[in-house]
Amino acid sequence: MVERLTDGTMSPVVMDFGLAREAGDNRGLTESGAVMGTPAYMAPEQARGDVRTLDRRADVYSLGATLYDLIAGVPPFDAQSVVDVLLQVMNEDAVPLRTRLPSVPADLETIVMKCLRKEPGARYDSAKALADDLQRYIDGEPIQGRRESVIGRVRRRAKKNLALVFVSAVSLVLVAGFAVQWVRVQLSAKRERERAAELVKLERQLGQDIKEMEWFLRSAYQLPLHDITPQLAIVRARMAAMDSQRAALRGDDGGRIDYAIGRGHLALHEPTEALRHLRQAKARGLDIPELHYALGRALGERFQQALEEARRQGDKSWVEKRRKELEAEYLQPAVQELEKSRGGTLDSPEYLEGLIAFYRKQYDIALEKAKTAFTKYPWLYEAKALEGKVHFSNGAQFCDAGKYDDGMPVLNVAISAYEEVLTIGRSDVSVYEEMSDVIKLKSTSKFDQGRNFEEETKEILRITDKSITIHPNRSKGRIQQANAYFWLGFMKGASAQDPRAEFLKAIASAEKAVSNEPGNASAYDMIGNGNYWYGAYEKDNDRDPLLYWNHADSAFRAAIRAETRFPWAHNDYGLLLQGRGNYLARQGADWRPELVESVKNFQRSIEADPSYIAPYINAIESYYFIVDLLTASHENAESAVKDAMAMYRSARNVNKNVVLIHYNMANMLMRYMEYLIAVGLNVDFYFGEIQHLIDELQGIDNDGLFATIVRMKFGVVKMSLPDQSLISLGNIIRELQLIAEDCRKNDGNAGRCDSILASAHALIADRIGYDNPAAARHIENALLLAGRAISVNPGEPEAIQVQVRASWAKFQSRTKRPTLAEVDSVIKWAKKALDLRPYEGHNHGNLARLLRLRAELSPQSRVTDAQQAKAHFQQAIQRSPRLEGTYRKPLQEVEALLVQQGGGK
């Protein structure tokens, strides 16, 4: 029952739990028997009759059952019979209060259901604890009771029925498996939804980034000429931020970030990097028209870039070979990608069609589309630049085919198109670079025609100054500038001016290009050429060139490492080795490694481009030097001659109309013939070969200059044959004089022809004897002609040798002895000849004879002169053993003089 307290609150009072009811009443009270209590309200342990475990917690259960009944209107368990009620009390859980009555507060349900726990330890410890928690509920304070956990219920039921638990566990595992799979599917779907949302957001953001980058750079390019490095840095920072987003994304971005970065590189005019990122985007599954358009542009721009690199690496045959390779690698895929981009969101569909036509070499269509695009979209100056590209490519085809009269006007139209572009894109470095390429092709075409190209070279410098102002750290402009400075220096050197300042500027520009792009083979090649020709100028002016040539050596090696297939680099390196070998020979050092390696580099150049004629020419010249040096030392040169003849046959198969292959071969064979004649060997075979070479030269040498020189030199060789009569010698020299008259009509070759004719006169004087009155005329002619040759070319070795020989002959032909001053004058020439060709025994012998003569004339320096004469006679015989018969007697006379003077044995 319930009573109201003095403060007005209600308090329950327990009267008697055991009041009797009628036996038929299912909710009846106490009955006699083992089980004591009202069944619907008794604790499970009481229902089992386990009286030993009964304590105050059984009363708590009964209180909870009563509360349950009061709230729900029914007891926790209800059945048709007492037995069924007891079974429910022992084995089943009461239906939760809120299941029967949802409006019951959760805390009240928790209190009641805690009282009805099957395990006594899970209930309130006492009625007082129950009352305290009920009071907390009534007062609105947090209760201490907690709902029974799922694990607790499972553990309790498991103890009750192990078999049922096992079956249930298996079922639970199966159900759990399906549940886990279902959860996974749901989570995966959720993640996909989230990823799709992220990608949509990313795509929207990247699309905005692309537009902002491109329009930001377009605005920078259209500003007046200025350094755009700060603007480039901003764009690169934006690209780096894009790249950093990868880590934050959950899963693959589908190539969108690479696509955006690739578009950035395109806007920066960096097709190689653009291509790398755009290909990655495609490989990651991105397939949109805009990607195909960007890929097509990148491939096309990389083709143009690589083609211009080829023009800096080899001649026309190499460029044509590389063009075919590059078209397969870049151009054909570019067209395919551009065709896939049709229908996409593009700035100008007409510009797209123009690009496709351009790469297909449909130049008329390309020009029409480019003009339409520029008319409709005047801000799109790339369309006007496309006009320039079309005219450049069209003009290049003419010039590469040797049709310069057709090609040069087209190149001028291309330049005009680029000039118009520069009225808009005033700070777009790519426009200046492309314009420089066009002007470079003009200068190369003029060079091929033998015309002056200084104006074009200076124009390239003017343009590259601007491109470097815009983008100081871009390598292409630096290489273009270096190339222009080099050719200005080369032209200065050819006109007997000092070229060193230009060569140093070329080297500095190329070195800057290397610092910006360490793997640029063309830049290294230019560093090598600048140093090589600087060293050549030093050598020609009697200064040591090796410091510069060693720098050139390192640069050429770097160029070849960077690009193993580089015809010009191999050829240029061969020329360096050739020059260094000859210089070392002059110094008395070992020349063989350099000259042999020079031939190997020329052969490598030929392997890279079999149609490139320059290395054939240069290889034959190296063989000439090898034969010259070997025969001067009385060594066998037959193997080198055979190799040279094989190289000549290969060169002739490439292009038999090149004068220098026949000229160099003739010079080499004549040098070898002189040796064979000197040692008394048969030369009939080589006579026929040289005559054939003369015939070849006369058929292709328009001016006849090279053929003239070979004919004159061949006449001197024939004069050296031992069986020639004086009449034959006279006929030959008269023929040579007539040839020399024609030769003098060209000032550039007069010195060479005079030198050869001087040698012929000196040879006749030798043959007829210095005491013969007729010899005096030939001696004077030799001295006159040698002097003329030296005035044209002060470093001409043959002319200086003739000067010495003829002067010695003049001393011998006179009845009175020469003065000391006259002898000293000739000794200076003899030392010069020896300096130019120290490996040649005759030069040592000529100086030795003059020193011996001065020893006789000057008592003050007699011992010193005699000692030096002895040393040079010995050198003459050591270097050319065949000269022993000529110089053995004067050597003995000098030795006797030294014994007489007490200066030697």
Detailed description of the structure:
- The chain has 905 residues and is an all-alpha fold.
- It is built from 38 helices and 2 strands.
- Strand 1 (2-4) and strand 2 (10-12) form a beta hairpin.
- The protein starts with a strand and ends with a helix.
- Mean pLDDT is 87; it is low at 15-36 and 162-176.
Write a concise keyword list for the protein shown above.
905 residues, mainly alpha, two-stranded antiparallel sheet, 74% helix
Question: pLDDT average, as an integer?
Answer: 87
Shape: elongated
What is the alpha-carbon Rg in Å? 53 Å
Number of helices: 38
Helical content, roughly? over 70%
Q: DSSP strand (E) fraction?
A: under 5%
Placed side by side, the strands forming the largest sheet appear as: 1-2
Termini Cα gap = 158 Å
Secondary-structure topology with pairs:
Elements: E1 2-4, E2 10-12, H1 44-47, H2 56-72, H3 82-91, H4 97-100, H5 106-115, H6 127-139, H7 150-160, H8 162-221, H9 229-248, H10 256-267, H11 271-283, H12 289-311, H13 316-340, H14 349-359, H15 363-376, H16 381-400, H17 404-421, H18 429-448, H19 454-470, H20 475-494, H21 500-516, H22 521-540, H23 546-562, H24 567-586, H25 592-608, H26 614-632, H27 638-654, H28 659-678, H29 684-700, H30 705-719, H31 726-743, H32 747-768, H33 773-792, H34 797-813, H35 820-836, H36 841-857, H37 862-879, H38 884-901
Antiparallel strand pairs: 1-2
